[in-house]
Specification:
alpha+beta, four-stranded antiparallel sheet, 5 helices, elongated
């Protein structure tokens, strides 16, 4: 059996890197008293994985941890045990138990949603440029990957983008982007491309990942609900 743990990474721990987050979760799992499964071999470790690593400095509302269990437990027991040992800045919001044959959440990830608050010079020009930006069929940008840098068309990786003014010189963008290994659009690249398209300075941005999505029967669905 496996335990899917949906948790929030609050602003106060947004600078926690992946390795530190891994250590924090491993420590919490060991202290939880749950029947956690360990790998075999000379140096056993907890069998766990994240659906997707958050970039340092970005908080998340619905991050997902996939943990293998060696025994029985209920979803409520898992929920209570994890919240008992995790800090308030990393609260578990939901737990789902699935069979071992359930698809790995990392492989099921297709898209991600972000909330981006823009503040300062350049905000108005960027918001005004969004309709024309979305009307383009090709937006070329230098994208980094494990293989290095390459000039790619990022427009097919942007599936939705809206903006709402939240005050003078401020706006909130809601973006939904591709999130697969061969076509991931990171929010900082999206913002840089928007600013370049609008011929505007890049405003200060507060980025938050709000949802990780997979696809079920052709419909986008939060990963934990697949």
């Amino acid at each position: 059996m496996r335990m899917l743990v949906e948790f929030r990474k609050d602003d106060i721990v947004r600078h926690l890197g992946l390795l530190d987050l891994q250590r924090t979760m491993q420590r919490a799992l060991r202290r939880s008293g749950l029947p956690i499964k360990y790998s075999s071999g000379f140096n056993p470790h907890i069998v766990m994985s994240f659906a997707s690593a958050l970039s340092t400095g970005i908080p998340g509302d619905a991050e997902l941890l996939d943990v293998s269990l060696s025994g029985e437990a209920t979803e409520q027991e898992c929920f209570e045990a994890m919240n008992r040992v995790l800090p308030p800045s990393l609260p578990v919001t939901r737990v789902r138990l699935v069979e071992d044959g359930f698809p790995k959440v990392m492989a099921a990830l297709r898209q991600a949603e972000y909330r981006i608050r823009l503040i300062g010079e350049g905000t108005e020009a960027i918001v005004s440029a969004i309709p024309a930006f979305l009307a383009e069929t090709e937006i070329m940008a230098m994208r980094k990957s494990k293989r290095g840098e390459a000039l790619v068309n990022i427009r097919p990786m942007l599936h939705a983008l809206t903006a709402e003014h939240s005050g003078s010189g401020e706006a909130v963008l809601q973006a939904r982007v591709s999130f697969v290994e061969t076509a991931t659009l990171k929010p900082d690249l999206l913002l840089a491309s928007l600013a370049a398209y609008a011929n505007a300075p890049l405003p200060r941005a507060e980025i938050r990942r709000t949802c990780l999505l997979g696809e079920k029967d052709g419909v986008l669905t939060p990963l934990i609900d697949l």
